[in-house]
Amino acid sequence: MKLICIGRNYTDHIKELENERPTDPVIFMKPDTAVLLKKQPFFIPEFSQDVHHEVEILVKINKVGKYIDEKFAHKYYDEIGLGIDFTARDLQTKLKEKGLPWEKAKAFDGAAVVGDFIPKSEFENINNIQFHLENNKKIVQKGNTSLMLWKIDALIEYVSKYFTLKIGDIIFTGTPSGVAKVNPNDQLEGYIENKQLFSIKVK
Hints:
With 203 residues, the chain is of the alpha+beta class. It has a single domain (3-201), classed as Fumarylacetoacetase-like, C-terminal domain (Fumarylacetoacetate hydrolase, domain 2), CATH 3.90.850.10. 15% of the residues lie in helices and 34% in strands. The chain contains four helices and 13 strands. The chain has a six-stranded mixed β-sheet, with helices on one face. Strand 8 and strand 9 form a beta hairpin. It is globular. The relative contact order is 0.28.
């Protein structure tokens, strides 16, 4: 199982980090060791003083595919989930300044929260899904899949040009604006519509 992550897929998030708007989806990977174990807290790593939460819609792949046409992409997933791409922002900034890969800032142990999944059939429109993140019961990030620069099926087409998609692979589709530092004792809760899909304690 691999985690394929999409960066800079929401205009407001691109603006808040003062990044350049990409002409193609930005892709990076996380290993399976980055997945935070169920019912475990997230421990802020000792190598960062500025870890940010980034809530994202997740797509779980249900069959093997390569060079998938966008019009057939809907056949390759039947579940939608929610998760967090934890990012050591201070470390990422240093790496970006040197033109180096981001993995140390994005792919460390526990850096990927994979919450529960909902059958795709429960949504009227995959491209109009509301989601949000609460930190200590306060909404800190809000998004809607309608605001993605590249929608889910377009992402599957693009990603599958470079990587064979396998059963159980998860695509992190990008985060909306509102990313911010997490602190010890924060309680992070993620929702699609009004359904809670994860609750994480920060330590």
